[in-house]
What we know:
Blueprint: E1 5-12, E2 20-26, H1 30-40, E3 48-56, H2 58-71, E4 82-84, H3 87-98, E5 104-105, H4 116-131, E6 146-149, E7 156-161, E8 164-167, E9 170-172, H5 174-184, E10 198-200, E11 203-204, H6 205-217
Antiparallel strand pairs: 1-2, 1-3, 2-4, 3-5, 6-7, 6-10, 7-8, 8-9, 10-11
Amino acid sequence: MDGKRGIIYILTNSIFKDNIIKIGITNRTVNERIKELNSQTGVPFPFICYSAIEVDNYKDIEKIIHEGYRSSKSQTYKTKEFFEVNPEDAYNYIKILSKLHNGKELIIKNEDVYSKEETNIIDKEEKRKKRINIKFKNIGIEVGSTLTFTRDETKTCEVIADNKVDFEGEQYSLSGLVKKLMLEKGGNGAQYNGYSFFKYNNKILTDIRSEFECENEE
Length: 218
């Protein structure tokens, strides 16, 4: 391993399914890399940084990650950096590897990356997704069920109604609770998809939702 330090990032894009992600590296800032991709790729929605971790031996770690996902048939396109993987699972995988290579998680502020036009596009898409009303009971999660926060498994909440949970005696939407917990961990106050950050029976909710959607299509 060459010891050089750089950044491994996970990017998402609303043009793709929730579990299609881009895993790449850069020796510049993530802000510069995202701006470059948004100007070069021609996709209608901006790439959004899901996570960014600075590590030693970043090129070697990227190879390990890509080879691991290729061997599990998670690669989705001929372009090598795109994979069909739940972004939170990918984050946890990279986080484990980064601990062995002096990993440091970076906080990316949207206002430092996107133009006003791009910010408006992102906000409109987030609002559109929120209007798609998904109820816990529709994906097999009943009132009284316990959900576990993916970033800290000591944090759990209880389902008290469709789309409402109880955490430490307070009622939240799942997205609202994720925002609170991420701010406590140093997050930037961005909007989060709550289903991406909680697990039920050790399975991330977005994966459970996808399974139910596939069953309904059959």
